[in-house]
Amino acid sequence: MKREHIILEHQSITDVNELPSQLMYYIDRVFTPDDTLITRTLHDLGNNTQQIAYVIQRCQSLGMKLLFLNDLGQNVFSLNVPLAEILNQLKNIEDNYEKMKLDRRHAIALQQGKILGRPEGSVYKQAIYEMRCKGYKQREVANHFNISLSTVKRYWKKRLFE
Questions:
Q1: Which of 26, 31, 94, 153 has its CA 20 to 30 A from that of 113?
Q2: 11 and 47 in contact (C-beta within 8 Å)?
Q3: Among 86, 75, 7, CA closest to 53
Q4: Does the residue 9 lie in any domain?
Q5: β-bridge mates for residue 39, sequence order
Q6: Residue 98, pLDDT above cutoff 60
């Protein structure tokens, strides 16, 4: 008897610490050793490399096969796949993971209405300029505001409306 299951995992952007619940349900309760899990990429198995490694380990412990559609020639995993190949694939994901994490953070911040990027200028910019005009020395300004001398030097020669 041929069985087919289609799993559509919809995970909120903020639930990145949780394993994909529907996928784990099928791996733990439905799939058998003769089954093959077909997905687009390794990225679809989890939200980070630890989750992806866990899902691969669970599939291999059951004797399942994994098939990744984006790279049919090299990504067919079975029980006899060398661990080095899996670790190499995970390293490639790790390289892209930081970018994915930043994109996810940006999406969350935009949903919350936050402004992205570094704040513009310094809160001390105008005060440093005014104290310089009054004749204070850089060290005195740094001590007065309890900031580093390098912060004072950064704004010392800049004009206020630059």
A1: 94
A2: yes
A3: 86
A4: no
A5: 68
A6: yes
